[in-house]
């Protein structure tokens, strides 16, 4: 039985391909040469939307009120001699787009169509597959009858199920291997490409695309697949091994990136190794020269080990403090939401009780024949409404006071945690500076001693020319050592400032948002109460007891 992919193909893309297959590229080019090219503009889009929208009375109403492009799900722009794709950015909810039978030369301006599932670009003049990265939901793609010579740049289309690229210029069987990454691909059309003339074409694709169900409108037979797997067994096994290794590396990379993101939230990314130390020397042009001084390699190794140990201590401490801050934030929002829920439930209970006690009271007052009794009952009901208003407002003010206290406690607690973190972080960074200062003193001492030996012609070791140039006089070598030292200190200072700034900004931003959200919540609740009370009172405005 044909699968859903084949059904869509037969109802959509393949129908266009079959009915227009008699047209050759040169014929189409001559056809379009006689017509002025178009660019997608507002007028064309509006007309297309109206033509494809509701007709008769509903259509007139839609045309009068205007159709919001954001509400359009399908758009048909075929046979309009379009040269350039443009101005589709408003169609953010579009799921189906037909741009076939135009003279489009480049795939572009589709980035906003992130919900697109079905795209037809057949019968155009496209030479390169590009501009489709944002269409991650795409399932059905037709590039039939274009000028494409390579299948590429489709990596993000992992939902792709149906792909038509017949009548192009695909030459090599090896290009088919690219399609292995599309695990959902079930239907493929390549008819009319030079690659189809290869006698191994069908068998090659059956072997390398094992999940493919339909190839060039035909079911891939099981016996063909079995023969293909036997023929290409060793090549496929080798390829699978390579794919497994690549997948493992990709997963490791993604895991590392995820890990780094978690470290960033703790402000200690890349401090679990020698990254900071290495960056100090990567931007130090003098370091590569000073390493040639006697005793410096061993001195540098000791310095690096101690420096990295401090960085790791800071890293572990940062993660621990991050957990404490996140726990505090979690407790705060738990208390906040609990208070809001309790208040909401109490408010709902009060309103339900009021409505239950006063069910049908307006009709009852209206039906009273005694005006004095009716007015008395109306006064009593008004007093109950006022009491309800006061009760709800009191409940809201109690919540405001309660949340104000909770927020103050949270501000104090989180500020203490951040302050302690920054204080200890500064202490550890100070240790890094102390190590750098100590290393600088030792390095300067070695440099001066080396200079004295060179002056006295007592230095016999080989030295590169650019290093020897540092020892022309004392000022030159001292300046070089000091410049190296300044770069290292600047790196340490910048990293410290970065940690402090991020920690403070995160908390200040969070607290500011909490206050803004509470102000917005309070105003919305007060407005809600007033609107409800006004609604109740409006029912009384329709009563006219005096006329009875």
Itemize the secondary structure elements and their pairings:
Elements: H1 4-11, H2 13-19, H3 25-33, E1 38-39, H4 42-52, H5 56-65, E2 74-76, E3 82-84, E4 96-98, E5 118-120, E6 140-142, E7 162-164, E8 187-189, H6 201-208, E9 214-215, E10 218-219, H7 222-231, H8 233-265, H9 275-282, H10 287-290, H11 296-357, H12 361-367, H13 371-455, H14 465-468, H15 474-541
Parallel strand pairs: 1-3, 2-4, 4-5, 5-6, 6-7, 7-8, 8-9
Antiparallel strand pairs: 9-10
Helix pairs in contact: 6-7, 9-15, 11-13, 13-15
Name the structural class. Answer: mainly alpha
Low-pLDDT stretches: 1-33, 56-62
Coarse shape: flat
Oligomeric form: single chain
User: What's the mean pLDDT score?
Assistant: 88
Share of helix, binned: 55-70%
Distance between the termini: 77 Å
Give the radius of gyration: 37 Å
Q: SSE order, as H and E?
A: HHHEHHEEEEEEEHEEHHHHHHHHH
So how many helices? 15
Beta percentage is: under 5%
Family: Belongs to the DRC3 family.
Signal peptide: 1-29
Pfam families: LRR_9
Subcellular location: Cytoplasm, Cytoskeleton, Flagellum axoneme
């Amino acid at each position: 039985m044909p699968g859903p992919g084949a059904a869509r193909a037969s109802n959509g893309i393949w129908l266009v391909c079959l009915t227009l297959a008699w047209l050759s590229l040169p014929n189409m080019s001559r056809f379009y040469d006689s017509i002025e090219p178009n660019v997608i503009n507002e007028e064309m889009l509006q007309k297309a939307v109206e033509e494809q929208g509701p007709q008769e009375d509903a259509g007139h109403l839609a045309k009068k009120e205007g159709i919001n492009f954001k509400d359009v799900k399908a758009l048909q722009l075929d046979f309009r001699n379009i040269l350039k794709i443009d101005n589709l950015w408003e169609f953010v909810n579009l799921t189906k787009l037909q741009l076939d039978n135009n003279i489009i030369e480049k795939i572009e301006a589709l980035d906003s169509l992130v919900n697109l599932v079905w795209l037809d670009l057949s019968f155009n003049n496209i030479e390169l597959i590009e501009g489709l990265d944002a269409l991650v939901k795409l399932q059905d793609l037709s590039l039939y009858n274009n000028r494409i010579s390579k299948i590429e740049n489709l990596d993000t289309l992992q939902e792709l199920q149906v792909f038509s690229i017949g009548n192009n210029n695909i030459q090599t069987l090896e290009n088919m291997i690219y399609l292995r990454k599309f695990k959902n691909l079930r239907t493929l059309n390549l008819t009319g490409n030079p690659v189809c003339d290869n006698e191994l074409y069908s068998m090659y694709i059956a072997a390398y695309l094992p999940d493919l169900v339909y190839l060039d409108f035909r079911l891939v037979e099981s016996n063909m697949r079995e023969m293909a797997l036997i023929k290409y067994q060793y090549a496929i096994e080798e390829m699978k091994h390579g794919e497994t290794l690549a997948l493992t590396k990709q997963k490791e990379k993604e895991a590392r990136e995820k890990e780094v993101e978690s470290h960033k939230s703790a402000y200690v990314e890349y401090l679990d190794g020698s990254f900071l130390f290495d960056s100090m020397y990567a931007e130090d042009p003098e370091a590569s020269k000073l390493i040639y001084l006697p005793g410096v390699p061993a001195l540098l190794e000791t310095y690096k080990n101690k420096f990295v140990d401090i960085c790791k201590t800071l890293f572990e401490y940062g993660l621990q403090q991050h957990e404490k801050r996140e726990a505090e934030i979690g407790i705060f929002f738990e208390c906040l939401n609990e208070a809001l829920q309790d208040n909401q439930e109490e408010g709902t209970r009060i309103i339900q009780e009021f409505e239950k006690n006063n069910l049908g009271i307006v009709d009852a007052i209206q039906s009273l024949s005694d005006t004095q009794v009716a007015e008395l009952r109306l006064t009593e009901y008004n007093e109950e409404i006022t009491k309800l208003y006061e009760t709800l407002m009191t409940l809201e003010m109690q919540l405001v006071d309660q949340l104000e206290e909770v927020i103050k406690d949270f501000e104090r607690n989180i500020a203490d945690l951040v302050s302690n973190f920054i204080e200890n972080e500064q202490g550890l960074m100070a240790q890094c500076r102390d190590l750098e200062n100590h290393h600088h003193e030792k390095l300067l001492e070695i440099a001066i001693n080396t200079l004295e030996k060179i002056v006295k012609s007592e230095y016999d070791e080989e030295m590169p020319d650019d290093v020897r140039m540092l020892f022309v006089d004392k000022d030159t070598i001292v300046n070089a050592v000091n410049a190296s030292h300044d770069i290292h200190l600047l790196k340490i200072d910048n990293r410290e400032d970065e940690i402090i700034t991020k920690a403070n900004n995160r908390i200040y931003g969070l607290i500011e948002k909490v206050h803004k959200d509470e102000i917005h919540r309070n105003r919305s609740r007060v407005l809600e109460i007033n609107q409800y009370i006004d609604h109740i009172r409006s029912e009384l405005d329709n009563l006219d007891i005096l006329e009875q």
